[in-house]
Amino acid sequence: MTARSVELRSDTFTRPTESMRRAMYDAEVGDDVWGEDPTVTRLEERAAALTGKGAAVFVSSGTQGNLVGLLSHTRPGDEVPVGDQSHIFWYEVAGAAVVGGLQLRTLPNGQSGRLEPVEVRAAIRGVDVHFPRTGCVALENTHNRCGGAVLTQEQMRSVADVAHASGVPVHLDGARIFNASVALDLPVADLVASVDSVTFCLSKGLGAPVGSLLCGSEEYIDRARKWRKLLGGGMRQVGVLAAAGLVALDESVDRLAEDHAHARALAEGLPDISGIAIDPASVQSNIVVFDVAALELEPEEFITRLAEVGVRIASVGGSKMRAVTSYEVSRADIDYALQKVAQLSQNTVPATA
């Protein structure tokens, strides 16, 4: 095995920075379930201000944030239109159905990651004894399975306008909303102004070890706290984690542009490699999706052979591969990864580097 490691499977592999570790060690803490952890309170106030919402609640993960987010808008038996490529539909263990008794109704995302307003309008149920109530519409930005696609302010507003016209709230899975904000050069509060709730991750590109924030109105967040407690999400002296989140918001947002530049460099280098298919223009943030169908190697063997020389990528199904940049991936790492992919495409990658 090579001593070099280029971690491109996900930005969830990021490790906390030294300043995060120091902040965690020095964190002032209390019992958060009682509302007495001052570091958590500062983090929640900061998140509410950044998103332009009335309040926020600290949750353990993006999945918990999305589940609490949907439950706080809906009641059992409701239907929730979501994208057919959405994280909520694909990767959250049917929690909305199991815990909330919610029915997810999928609408096509397309490669752009967006939902078409006309299709959202058609999916919102009318009043009929046979129909479930439409309890909420869910969006995602940036869009994971659509290659990190960025939804613009207008694309989100156009869906929110349709939903709100029928009295239906909109929840945004904004796990990587700061990536979208940096890509669009638009403050997060402006970008999410049209939605009723938003969750974002402190981990992933921001580099904190764990945690997400769910943001919305004060009344909404009061309901969310109750759901968080029901799900076992009351975490007591959790200021030790919130402290890292505050550092992430202070130090990690602006540098996301570097991750985007490295992703573009990878996307621009891959088409020069025989057997690799990708449209570099499709890369808008820190996620790169490419196709290896033209290679003789099976996709799993492709992943395994790259890992043997220190380049770790992930499959997103079939012959499609995903590489995600983060603060621990340098431009030199990208060049190394491109070199090893090129060698492998020629079936000349040595067993060891």
* Helix percentage range: 25-40%
CATH homologous superfamily title of the largest domain: Type I PLP-dependent aspartate aminotransferase-like (Major domain)
pLDDT below 50 for ≥5 consecutive residues: which ranges?
A: 348-353
Mean pLDDT: 95
**Any idea of the CATH class of the largest domain?**
Alpha Beta
Corresponding CATH architecture of the largest domain: 3-Layer(aba) Sandwich
Question: What is the number of helical segments per DSSP (H or I, 4+ residues)?
Answer: 14
Order of helices and strands: EHHEHEHHEHEHEHHEEHHHEHEEEH
What's this, in brief?
With 353 residues, the protein is an alpha/beta fold. The chain has helices spanning 18-26, 38-51, 62-71, 87-90, 95-100, 117-123, 153-165, 177-184, 188-191, 218-230, 239-251, 256-269, 299-308, 331-345; strands spanning 6-7, 55-59, 79-83, 103-107, 137-140, 170-173, 197-201, 212-216, 287-291, 311-312, 314-315, 320-324.
